[in-house]
Amino acid sequence: MAPRPPRPPRPPRVPWAAPLYVGAVQLGAYATARLPSRRRTELLRAHSTNVANLRAGRWGTLLTSAGFVEEPLPVPYGAALLAVLGTAERHWGVRGAAGVFAAGHLGASLLVYAGLRARSHLRGPGDPTPHAIDVGASYGFYATLGALAASVPHRGIRAAATAGLLALGTRPVLRRGRTFTDAGHLTALALGVATGAGIRAGRHGWKGAKKRYPTAAR
């Protein structure tokens, strides 16, 4: 059987979901900022992944919280978010990038919830944390950034990038004025690094199988 001609290289993906998402979040933030202060607070709290909502079974906030932010995104942060999500979409496609984002956002939100719920039992009913506003794209952003760092092909650059990001994520957790969001960022970053390592290992395994069994891999 004659070997098949090599497939032409795929054209590079042009990210479209990342700009759409970041733009929607920013437009929503400007619209929310125009609401009266009390109504705005109620809206953000209703979509927060805080202890009160999740303990009451409002699990939909795990999804909707990623679509709201407390304030319009600053230009540097919005540009960084767009660059990271766009790079992930270009490398892994819409589904892959969305999966990494969702794994970090959902995983970090649930782990932070578990920690805060345990703390609320110790502190009693006077603790305001269970009703705190907890919305935004930062958990997914940190997870995607960690996954990109962990999937860099060059071993030395990959190790330096992941170690540097984890060190930067650990520093706020060690300070005296740390918040549960700082812990969530570090958790999301660690989840992203693990996800990126899994993606890289899976690709290496696929390439190895393709070299060993070229006809079966087609």
Automatic annotation (TrEMBL):
Keywords: Membrane, Transmembrane, Transmembrane helix. It is a multi-pass membrane protein. Its main location: membrane. InterPro entries: Rhomboid-like_sf (IPR035952), Rhomboid_2 (IPR046862). It is found in: Membrane. It comes from the Bacteria. This is Rhomboid-like protein. It comes from Streptomyces bugieae.
